[in-house]
Amino acid sequence: MSKQRLLHVLVPLLSIVFVLSACVAPPTPAAEAPSGEEPAAEAVTLTWAFWGSPAEAETHMKVADAFMAEHPNIEIETMIEPWSDYFTKVQTLWASGDASVIPDVLFLWPTPRYAADGVLENLEPWIEKSGYDLSDYWPALLESAMYEGDVYGFPRDIGIEVLYYNKDTFDEVGVDYPTEDWTWDDFLAAAEKLTVVESSGRVSRYALGMEGGKYQLWSGQNSGSILDDMRNPSKCTLTEPAAMEAIKFFADLMNNNLAMRDANLSQAGGDSAAFQSGQVAMIIQNASRVSAFNQAGMNYDVAPVPIPEDGQRSASAGGAAWVMSSASDNKEEAWTFLSWLQSTEGGLRIYTESGEVFPALKSVARSDAFLEADAPPENREAFLTEGENAKVGRFGYFPEWGELNGSIISPGLQRVWAGEATPEEAVPEICDQVDAFLAENGYPK
Amino acid sequence: MVGSLGLSFVRWNLLTPPTFVGLSNYTQLIARDRIFHKVLWNTLYFTITIVPLQLALGLILAVALNQAIRGLTFYRAIYFMPVVTNIVAAAMIFQWMFNRDFGIISAMIWRLAEVTGLPIQPPDWLNSTFWAKPAVVLLTLWKNMGFTMVIYLAGLQAIPHELYDAAKVDGAGALHRFRYVTIPMVSPTTFFLLVIQMIGAFQLFSEPYVMTNGGPAQATLTIVYYIYQNAFEFGRMGKASAIAWVLFAFIFIFTFIQIRLQRRWVHYEAGE
């Protein structure tokens, strides 16, 4: 009898032990193997990859923490690489095909190239399902993240340029600060006064520091273009009068000592360093410089970029975008994170408050996060003016653009920026090579 | 290596499956690729300037620092320092020094112009397709001279002193002793350095990568830089592999020629 009673006690007891052990056991492997096979109910780990300097990394971490605080069931694991190694690294990870190491959400540029290779998740179904609002993006901006008509990424910021000017230098020379109405002629007149050339020929201050690669800003203002179609090009259009005139305008700035030559600017440490050290009085650049100039305590402000008489504004509607890997194991969570990153109250707000970016969403740009920041530049409206009028056309949205630009267009124009060839000599030659390249690669498709 | 040979026959961008293209990567390179031809010429320019200058300067330094002078170790350390300096940091500093208006090298020339009243101007180093190459050569020499010097020092110290004494007795002056004793006696060292430096020059990458980005207008783009661009910037792994194999062939042929030629001028009879 006592044996039977013992069994009565033992059987339930043992089963309890079994059940308990079954409950206790699984969490250990789940915690050890993030994004493993089991769809662990409690916490899903997403790998989030981006590039950035240490200062930028800090902002990224802040964003990850804010998201995790709101979404306790999603754990964000970050992967940061310097810009120079980032693309090699993520391409290698993708090439490995191993879903456990491929980041779920990444920062990427240029989106169309990767979308063409099939490594990115088409976001259209997700957008449709959740009713995500695409109309909040600046005009034309989403085009930089589209491939064959579908959205594959959400641009975080928009790389629109404004004219930064050093107030101290303007005061010293007695030139009025730039205004929204400045034309190329007004700009030239001011530049003549701002440049300082010594009797030996040494230039001790240039009026402008601007990367040669930004020439299409001038050209776009003049309604000029690089290719007839930036998605499916059939020919180079740099030789057409609108583009030629703009290239000449820029080359003359350099030839007349009004703008620092492209190579010398990068030698001087880039436009940011040249502006801070007073080697140039103005630069034309996107919002990324604001935090550095504020830290350096500079007395500066910004204005919209001067345009030709009857010209248009043509800031670049393009920027690196957040994308989702098509190989992700946790797409549902990845979408939650992605759409939170690019929302009025989400990640974008934190990036904007850090002062490093001009936000891709109009609602954030018009919010206090951007406009009410109690730091220079004062004239933040200049960014809005440029944003409203942003244009595509600075980059080709086809896979071979990087090679075309990096091996033909950009080196070809460097001869012009170096003053070794006139636009009339160099540009037709570039266009011949571009046309040959396009034909060889089967364009137009 | 076998993998890369295989890769050189395909078109592959890392992300989509490779497609077989036969020899077209090679034929395109040799027959049609204008940039590849430019890159070959640039690499040749760097090799024929850097290697002889490197050897000559290294030997002169080694001879100078093989004398009993005060502070010898200090000088040797100073000249060796660039070898252990991080190339990226060094290239960035050189970049600043070369700046036309604000660099220290140009500053000396501007100052000279001011003092003498002559209408001279510093070269626009890294902005000029002509001057950017010598600028890269200068950086490379500065960086590697110490290495050549140290190897030569070792070679010099292996020369038996009696040889110099004998030459002196025969009435040979310092220059003659250098020409007829030192140079033949260090020829095995010279041979070693020649091979090593030539391979190094063929593989020049970091100096232009950091200092000039291969520019202006591809004036300082080297073979290895072009491999890098194709593989990681343009997504052309197959073409990059093909260039790597062409580079391998060059290094192989040149090294082979050197080994063949060494019988004519390298003397191994030291100590016998």
What labels describe this entry?
heterodimer; A: 445 residues; alpha/beta; D-Maltodextrin-Binding Protein, domain 2; 2 domains; five-stranded mixed beta sheet; 12 strands; 45% helix; 12% strand; globular; B: 272 residues; mainly alpha; MetI-like fold
Radius of gyration of chain B: 23 Å
Proportion of beta-strand residues of chain B: under 5%
* Helix percentage range of chain A: 40-55%
> What is the residue-averaged pLDDT of chain A?
87
- Unreliable parts of chain A: 9-40
Give the CATH superfamily of the largest domain in chain A.
Periplasmic binding protein-like II
Relative helix content of chain B: over 70%
Head-to-tail CA distance between termini of chain A: 89 Å
Per CATH, the superfamily of chain B is MetI-like
Number of helices of chain B: 13
Please compute the radius of gyration of chain A using only Cα atoms: 27 Å
The biggest sheet of chain A, with number of strands, parallel, antiparallel or mixed sense and barrel status, is: 5 strands, mixed
Biggest sheet record of chain B: 2 strands, antiparallel
Number-wise, the strands of chain A total 12
Question: How many extended strands of chain B?
Answer: 2
The helix-and-strand class of chain B reads mainly alpha
Task: Please give a structural write-up.
- The complex is a heterodimer of chains A (445) and B (272).
- Chain A is α/β, with parallel strands linked by helices and 445 residues long.
- Chain A folds into two domains: 44-159 and 318-388, Periplasmic binding protein-like II (D-Maltodextrin-Binding Protein, domain 2); 162-317 and 392-440, 3-Layer(aba) Sandwich (D-Maltodextrin-Binding Protein, domain 2), CATH 3.40.190.
- Chain A is built from 20 helices and twelve strands.
- In chain A, helix 9 (215-221) packs across helix 10 (241-255).
- Mean pLDDT of chain A is 87; it is low at 9-40.
- Chain B is mainly alpha-helical and 272 residues long.
- Chain B has one domain: MetI-like (MetI-like fold, Orthogonal Bundle).
- In chain B, a hairpin with a 7-residue loop joins strand 1 and strand 2 (19-20).
- The radius of gyration of chain B is 23 Å and the shape is globular.
